[in-house]
Amino acid sequence: DSGVTQTPKHLITATGQRVTLRCSPRSGDLSVYWYQQSLDQGLQFLIQYYNGEERAKGNILERFSAQQFPDLHSELNLSSLELGDSALYFCASSSGGGQTPYEQYFGPGTRLTVT
Amino acid sequence: ELKVEQNPLFLSMQEGKNYTIYCNYSTTSDRLYWYRQDPGKSLESLFVLLSNGAVKQEGRLMASLDTKARLSTLHITAAVHDLSATYFCAEETSGSRLTFGEGTQLTVNP
């Protein structure tokens, strides 16, 4: 158990809908990262937040957005869902902001199925 | 373009044998990570390699980093069935984001 929690574990929804994935980092960790894992794209970095502020952006679609709240939990919002958004979404956390190497610990993931 | 390439992508080996997984990356990063993933599960951190020449060992696994060659290796010694999983290397780049390789699916047969 990494100490990173994600809810829900599974989500099944229809195309065009909107969903919210939630992540609680390990106690004391200030950075939260979101990754998407799919069969065709592999594991891709989406976005990073550090202490409430966006720190880095990767291959995140405009239909997707994220935020980190004052209590450091993070939410990833996916809207206008398409079949291709079906994937495993991981949240990871680390203690640092990027200048020093900090190991990332991954949560159990949320499996999103869009039908 | 950031690119991390692993080979082989699929590896079937017998128990007791040795093998090496290779990870080539594209930038001058000196931070390389190895993760293990069991089917349908999360990623488990195996090794963090932070400098040229770094070598780390845990049980039957040993990882090394050559930043000049932009190459990391994961060596498996005397494989056992419990090592069957998918292994990912990941390069840390700007903002501490991780760029992952495609993964090496390892199957250890009795």
Report what the structure shows:
- The complex is a heterodimer of chains A (115) and B (110).
- Chain A is mostly beta strands and 115 residues long.
- Chain A is built from no helices and eleven strands.
- The N and C termini of chain A lie far apart (31 Å).
- Chain B has 110 residues and is mostly beta strands.
- Chain B contains no helices and eleven strands.
- Chain B has strands at residues 4-7, 10-14, 19-25, 32-37, 43-49, 55-58, 61-66, 71-76, 85-92, 98-100, 104-109.
- In chain B, strands 2, 4, 5, 9, 10 and 11 form a six-stranded mixed sheet that branches.
Can you give me a brief rundown of this structure?
The complex is a heterodimer of chains A (115) and B (110). Chain A is mainly β.
Largest sheet of chain A: 7 strands, mixed
| DSSP, total strands of chain A | 11
**What fraction of the residues of chain B are assigned to beta strands by DSSP?**
over 45%
Largest sheet of chain B: 6 strands, mixed
Largest interface: A-B, 27 and 22 residues
Number of strands of chain B: 11
Q: Roughly what is the average pLDDT of chain B, rounded to an integer?
A: 92
Radius of gyration of chain B in whole Å, from Cα? 13 Å
What oligomeric state is this?
Answer: heterodimer
Number of helices of chain A: 0
Output the helix-strand order of chain B.
EEEEEEEEEEE
Note the gap between the termini of chain A: 31 Å
Helix segment tally of chain B: 0
Structural class of chain B: mainly beta
